What does this fold into?
Amino acid sequence: MGNIDGIRENFKFIVSETQMQVHRIYDFVKHPTSEAYEKAVNRESYINNLKMIIENKCYACIHAHGDMDTRSLNRVRAVLSITANLERICDVCINILEQMGYLAERRILRDSEYSPMFQVIEESLDLVSRALEESSLPKALRICRSEYILDALYRSSFERLTSLINSSREGAGNCITAIFIYRYLERIGDMLLNVGEAILFAVLGQRIKIEQFDSLRQTLENSGYTGAFENINFQAIWGSRSGCRIGKIENAGEGRMSEHASLYKEGAPKKILREKENLEKWDALFPGSVPRIYGYNADEDRSSLLVEFLSGCGFDDLIILRDGATVANAFFVLEKTIQHIWEKTLDPGPVAVNFIQQLQQRYDEVRQVHPEFAQRSRLSIGKAHVPSVQSLIEQCREYEKNLCAPFSVLIHGDFNTNNIIYDHEEQIVRFIDLYRSKQYDYVQDVSVFLVSNFRRPIFDPLLRGRLNRGISEFHSWALQFAREKEDETMQARMAFALARSFFTSIRFEMNQAFAGELFMRAAFLLESISAHGRTGGPWQTFTFPPDILYYTA
It folds into this structure.
């Protein structure tokens, strides 16, 4: 265990003690005696002490070795997690003892039901020390999968006992107590799953659930990878707001796989399938503009996608970190690329817009984070009245029903700066995260790009100036595109779209003052839309002040 050799002995003791405690409970369930009861209860304090000793040694080890390598640190973290779950298993064992005291008829418990459950638990515990010492994925996976087996065994016993209750052939109290006992055994499976996943973390270096590991393995196999999974370097990429797990994968050993790094994305089947279809669509229309697909795996609950990891720099970092000439060139390439995509996919038929509906779909999330903004009540000062936020949103949704874009184009659908990759050497822009891509109003992509720059919590005046220049450049280009296409209602639709983006961005901002800046801009736009709508004037005459797009630190 590298730098944590001093923890090994205590760790082996708590694993061994947990095995013995489980076996004591098994013996007690078969042959309850007061002596067996006392022996199991008396060991509880020793197990709790072992847990505290291991925790103290782990934290002391981390503190004493400030330069501890990542692998050793991951093992310390794994030991902490495993120890906590072993202690919980022992607590559950005591719960089973206590439930046995309520059991009037022991024959309700069938040896053919509980013995296989105890056997699975004991076999899994027997693997724990070796799995961690050997960094063994197969053993870790066997521990994890014990949870599935225990679930199935519990379901079978539960169905029998509930049937007995319904048929009144046995006392309900006895059956319910037996269900509790089997349920505790099933809960041990949840803790063993945590133990196995902690060992996976120690081996792989990243937190990954067993179902996610299975999905990753199947996706890699579908991509043609034939090497050992211990050779896979999986680096999780945090910060995804889509509910998907995203990670960067590299092959550190032998086995056929792309020579370049890959991006692994796992999530809800509909989302992953939609992204796959959109990637294929974009690649057919604009080859090289999106990542290549290496593998895809679909399951009932989760699906996954393995795609090319694009080289280059995300626009979010580029605007802040690169020199002015590089940024200017990146915007030139981006604008030319987007114009080409929009021109090629332009459909002259009108398309209804639904920016306010999108806002309403996310309203509850905004209210959860910032109720002080989302639930603003109606305000009155003399004869002047300001409607509540909800009322204002409803008014704007009614006005939006009379507004259409004159044409549609293929939009990205989530045109945040971190979904745009610029490769300076190749002089190309490419796109990722195309789950929401569709034929729609180009104004949506424009508004999302502008607000994704505005909402960055960067308050240094110099860096904020860079963001504002990026906003100004893209906004000016979008206005020019609208003029070229004789899009006379672009400003009105932009107000709806910006209001949607400003308002929904509040849910990602915990800084109340900055969240207030986002809200005030959304409210201003909504009130301006409502005021214009009440006049009955044409949307072609609607404008909003461009200063609303800029934040001064």
The chain has 18 helices and 14 strands. The chain has three domains: 2-205, 211-308, 314-549.
